[in-house]
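re: ur msg from earlier - yeah i can do the FE2/S2 (inorganic) cluster complex, just paste it... oh wait u already did. ok heres what im feeding in:
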Amino acid sequence: MAATATDSRAQQDAHPSGDERFALLDKALKRARFEQDQLVELLHTAQEVFGYLSNDVLIYLARQLRLPPSRVLGVASFYHLFTFEAPGDHICTVCLGTACYVKGAEEVVEGTAQALGVPAGQTSDDGRLTLWTARCVGSCGLAPVVVFDGTVLGKQTTDELVTHIREVFAAEDAAAEEEEAG
Ligand code: FES
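and the outut:
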């Protein structure tokens, strides 16, 4: 079958790093026919594939869509759901939507940040934990809600959450020690 114009564009401009995640992004670009008005959709895909939007990824998207990088960055920055830094090994997202807020979610964020030494919106120095906040995550009946590594934890107090995270870390440490011991 003859190569289409979009095929040849993806081939010509394939990311030089050889990182296979860019091949996934290329597939999405092809599906979107390199349409500039698909930018937000493609940013979503990029974030799903890479976990965050690095400069490299933003510039690559800009090049493939024939858009100025400043435009791509501007659009990505406009939406709160995009993140520009690599998250830590574990991601803890505390919902600060209205239902969670009135049930004390703010205290949960502050208490967790203090207990674990990770300011809200940041990643711990050892790269182990990222503490994020979000607007309604859609489980208001369980407020205050926390999503830890993709698992929804309902009716959380600071103590429960901090204990849960410490237990996860302890289990991980124990597994690593066991592996080291052979
Ligand atoms: S407000 Fe937190 S889940 Fe809806």
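cool cool. The first strand starts at residue 90 and ends at 95. ping me if u need the other ligands too
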